[in-house]
């Protein structure tokens, strides 16, 4: 079966889609590639020149390290096993009173900057100063969570078959409609396709397995991908697929070498 792809929902920071014609190992490989192998920029070192705040250097460095940075991934090669050794400097020089935000960081590269300018770093009192340089580089989520481009999860696509012999089955129809789930209705049953999670009220438990049954649609999965802001959500998925294909090609080439 040829894999098929269908978008269910697209937002600025997330996308939900169905993939048909794949198996669990491939679905999990895609999930792991998104989390572990899609490269992004993140601060890896912080050099302090003055810190008069109430927080230790290590705490401020950790907070800055977890700030998502926009990543112009098209400028960098995905073919190499090692990532490009490119360093971006984000400088900070502020004096209190007031809150220091991620937007106060000034980048040496306009393409690499805080994805959200309103992330609080530390609050400075009157006369307190904070001066530092933060050095960002490309990394992968498998090395540290700060390089993960976002969050991804998937579920089996299933159909819930509800016999119309179940007392109050109309209530399940109303609940499914409120969730925006696809519904098919025949003279004998109601069929709900779970493109989203769908939980039955407890009073229907006694009918599950007999008059209410859930069937897995073979080879079909619902993926949800959310971005932290480093990359557009569509770019996360396409980049992960490119990396997965290139890893597969490299593996096949190595097998051919052994065969020769």
CATH topology name of the largest domain? Alpha-Beta Plaits
Strand fraction: 35-45%
Average pLDDT number:
93
- In CATH's first tier, which class of the largest domain applies? Alpha Beta
**What value does the Rg take, in angstroms?**
24 Å
The CATH architecture classification of the largest domain is 2-Layer Sandwich
User: What percentage of residues falls in helices of 4 or more residues?
Assistant: 10-25%
The first-to-last residue Cα distance is 32 Å
Principal-axis shape equals: flat
In N-to-C order, the SSE pattern is: EEHEHEEEEEEHEEEH
Q: Count the domains.
A: 2
Give the low-confidence spans. none
Instruction: Supply the helix-strand structural class.
Output: alpha+beta
User: Helical segment tally?
Assistant: 4
The count of strands amounts to 12
Strand order of the largest sheet: 1-2-12-9-11-10
Profile the largest sheet.
Answer: 6 strands, antiparallel
Secondary structure layout:
Elements: E1 4-10, E2 14-20, H1 24-36, E3 40-51, H2 57-65, E4 88-95, E5 98-101, E6 106-107, E7 120-124, E8 129-139, E9 150-163, H3 169-179, E10 183-185, E11 189-193, E12 212-227, H4 233-259
Antiparallel strand pairs: 1-2, 2-12, 3-8, 4-6, 4-8, 5-7, 9-11, 9-12, 10-11
Helix pairs in contact: 1-4
Structural overview:
The structure is a single chain. By secondary structure, the protein is α+β, with helices and mostly antiparallel strands. It folds into two domains: 108 residues, Alpha-Beta Plaits (2-Layer Sandwich), CATH 3.30.70.3110; 104 residues, Beta Complex (RNA Polymerase Alpha Subunit, Chain A, domain 2). The protein contains four helices and twelve strands, in the order ββαβαββββββαβββα. The strands form three sheets. It has a six-stranded antiparallel sheet with strand order 1-2-12-9-11-10. Strands 3-8-4-6 form a four-stranded antiparallel sheet, with helices on one face. The longest helix has 27 residues. The chain is flat and about 75 Å long. The mean pLDDT is 93.
């Amino acid at each position: 079966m040829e894999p098929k792809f269908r978008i269910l929902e697209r937002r600025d920071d997330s996308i939900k889609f169905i993939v048909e014609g794949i198996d669990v190992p491939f679905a999990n490989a895609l999930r792991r590639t998104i989390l572990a192998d899609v490269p992004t920029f993140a601060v890896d070192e912080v050099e302090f020149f003055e810190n008069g705040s109430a927080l230790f250097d290590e705490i401020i460095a950790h907070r800055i390290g977890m700030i998502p940075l926009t990543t112009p991934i098209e400028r960098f090669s995905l073919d190499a096993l090692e990532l490009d050794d490119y360093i971006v400097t984000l400088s900070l020089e502020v004096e209190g009173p007031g809150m220091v935000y991620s937007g106060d960081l000034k980048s040496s590269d306009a393409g690499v900057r805080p994805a959200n300018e309103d992330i609080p770093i530390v609050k400075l009192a009157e006369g307190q100063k904070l001066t530092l340089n933060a050095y960002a580089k490309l990394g992968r989520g498998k090395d540290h969570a700060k390089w993960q481009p976002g969050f991804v999860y998937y579920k089996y696509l299933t159909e819930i078959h509800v016999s119309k012999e179940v007392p109050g089955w109309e209530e399940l129809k109303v609940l499914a409609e409120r969730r925006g789930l696809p519904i098919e209705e025949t003279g004998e049953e109601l069929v709900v396709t779970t493109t989203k999670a769908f939980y039955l009220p407890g009073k229907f438990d006694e009918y599950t397995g007999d008059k209410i049954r859930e069937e897995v649609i073979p080879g079909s999965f619902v993926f949800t991908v959310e971005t932290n802001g480093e990359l557009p959500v569509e770019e996360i998925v396409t980049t992960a697929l490119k990396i997965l294909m290139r890893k597969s090609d490299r593996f096949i080439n190595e097998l051919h070498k052994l065969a020769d």
